[in-house]
Amino acid sequence: MSGPETYWRTALGDGRFLLQRAPDGTAVFPPRVAVPGSGVGTLEWFEACGRGTVYSLSWINRRAPAEPYNVALIDLDEGARLMSRVEGVDAESLKIGMRVEAFIEGKGEEAILLFRPAEGAA
């Protein structure tokens, strides 16, 4: 299997968080072959800063003894939006508008992109 998704996952497995940029400077996620909307132009890869803001969130409650977990939409500072989890928080501390920073957990094919509260985040 090859293509943008494979390239992105391989980079993530190597500890790099990449995004794509359209010719007009718009950040693109998820990884794509063509520019969204027009299909015109070439997408270039660049290293994401990894910072963003929680746009929306939901808590998933599981049967005990499993702990609940969150699913959050994160607006990256580059302008793209993605879905992930925010670690190290509980239902009372995770808020819409909270500043977060990305980290990669695991290596190789097991790598996943997660977020944690940014330093100084309330």
Tell me the layout of helices and strands.
Layout: H1 4-13, E1 18-21, E2 27-28, E3 44-47, E4 51-60, E5 69-76, E6 81-84, E7 99-105, E8 112-117
Antiparallel strand pairs: 1-2, 1-3, 4-5, 4-7, 5-6, 7-8
InterPro entries: ChsH2_C, NA-bd_OB-fold, Thioester_dehydratase-like
Domain ChsH2 C-terminal OB-fold: 45-102
Protein name: ChsH2 C-terminal OB-fold domain-containing protein
Give an overview in words.
This is ChsH2 C-terminal OB-fold domain-containing protein. The protein is 8% helix and 37% strand. The chain is mostly beta strands and 122 residues long. The strands form two sheets. It has a five-stranded antiparallel β-sheet, with no helix packed on it. The chain is globular.
Short description:
The protein has one helix spanning 4-13; strands at residues 18-21, 27-28, 44-47, 51-60, 69-76, 81-84, 99-105, 112-117.
CATH class: Mainly Beta
* Overall shape: globular
How confident is the prediction overall: mean pLDDT?
94
Q: Helicity range of the residues?
A: under 10%
Question: Can you tell me the residue ranges where pLDDT is under 50 for at least 5 consecutive residues?
Answer: none
* SSE succession: HEEEEEEEE
The beta-strand count equals: 8
Using the 3D structure, state the CATH architecture. Beta Barrel
Relative strand content: 35-45%
From the helix content, strand content and strand pairing, which structural class follows? Answer: mainly beta
Compute the CA-based radius of gyration: 16 Å
Strand order of the largest sheet: 6-5-4-7-8
Sheet with most strands: 5 strands, antiparallel
The span between the termini is 42 Å
Number of domains: 1
